[in-house]
Amino acid sequence: MNKEEEPPGGFSKRLLVTGGAGFIASHMIISLVENYPEYLVINLDKLDYCASLRNLDAIADRPNYKFLQGDICDSHFIKELFETEHVDMVLHFAAQTHVDLSFLDSFKFAYVNTYGTHILLNAAHDVGVEKFVYISTDEVYGGSLDEEFDETSPNRPTNPYASSKAAAESFVLSFWERYKFPVVITRSSNVYGPHQYPEKVIPKFISLLQHNRKCCIHGTGRQTRSFLYASDVVDALLTVLKEGQIGEIYNIGTSFDMSVSQLARELIQMIQNTSSETETECWMDYVTDRPVNDLRYAMNSKKIHSLGWRPKVHWKEGIERTIEWYKNNFHNWKNAEHALEPFVCQA
Predict the structure, then answer these.
(1) CATH number of residue 164's parent domain
(2) Are residues 248 and 218 in the same domain?
(3) What is the pLDDT of residue 209?
(4) Domain co-membership, 188 together with 121
(5) Which residues of the chain have pLDDT under 70?
(6) Catalytic residue among 85, 100, 138, 235
(7) pLDDT at 293
(8) 185 shares a domain with 75
(9) Which domain covers residue 173, as residue numbers?
(10) What percent of the chain has pLDDT over 70?
(11) 81-96 per-position pLDDT tens digit
(12) What residue spans of the chain are helical by DSSP H?
């Protein structure tokens, strides 16, 4: 590791954010750097295909921000990082997250998401960090049409991505049970907004339509997803960082949801200005579904509501901001065009 000179002045806290050049974590870093000048925010990112330092242009030169390129699976690197950077708190976002890809390379997801998390836990525990927040997903619950999941619901993951996150959660909780190491887990609904690599459904549909291509919809498109705007999730994580009780799990959910086919229709009408259902349908292309595609995730978020958090950004406002951002930023990533191809399951 290259030991860089520390920014001038003292810092009351030193926060490590993993995967900080990615989607949600980049929003988290910007919020921390801009609103907490007394914190040093350290961004650790491998700079994989879905990361972009352009996401952090707004704060790249701030004195309370520091970027380190590195791999959470490199145990020697991570051990040295914690020893030299004197980390007080960890927000662990770094992960392989695309469900489609997890069917094609499940070992990579297990390695990065589970093994990498274990490496971080060991290093953080060795130096005695104050709080370790693990960012997980609603997908660990599995799908259900009628059941609303709360934090005590069992994990029943149905794809390799969700399985790797659930396994990582088990390691996180084991450090609490064995050492009383101060961990917190969050599980959020689908998140959307600027900075998201266009392999996920909302930026993918937006980008396809902005390139005058059809929305490629898995299976029937009846799958329903709940969507939270990125800044709302950042607010939730800040709430957990400050008020969340150690050893606990917090759902970060919303009552707003829609089917994937309805999502496509709304985006088509907004971007292509279609005036009839027939015209809208012409922009929809139904493709082969992935091996398992949960129809619905419904979460009870009363626990985090009790800490004072509620989502604030309405769908219309959030999606308009997101569409506008992708007009000028699609090429923030190398080979972003590859993300627009439909999923193909290899036998």
Answers:
(1) 3.40.50.720
(2) no
(3) 98
(4) yes
(5) 1-9, 345-347
(6) 138
(7) 76
(8) yes
(9) 13-192+228-252
(10) 96
(11) 999 999 999 999 999 9
(12) 23-35, 75-85, 99-104, 106-109, 116-127, 160-179, 201-210, 230-243, 260-271, 277-281, 302-305, 315-329
C-alpha closest to that of 194 among 182, 183, 202: 202
Separation of first and last alpha carbons in the chain: 41
Q: How many CB atoms lie within 10 A of CB 191?
A: 22
pLDDT at 346: 55
Instruction: Give the CA dihedral 129, 134, 135, 139, nearest 10 degrees.
Output: 180
Q: How many domains is the chain built from?
A: 2
CA 316-321-326 angle, to 5 degrees, is 130
Whole-number pLDDT of residue 91: 98
Position 189 scores a pLDDT of: 95
Instruction: Please pick, among 161, 192, 197, 229, the residue that the annotation labels catalytic.
Output: 161
Active site residue 45: no
Q: Of 45, 88, 139, 235, which is the active-site residue?
A: 139
Active site residue 161: yes
Question: Are 128 and 144 members of one domain?
Answer: yes
Question: Has residue 332 been placed in a domain?
Answer: yes
Q: How many CB atoms lie within 10 A of CB 211?
A: 10
pTM for this predicted structure: 0.94
Q: Based on the residue annotation, tell me whether 243 is a catalytic residue of this protein.
A: no
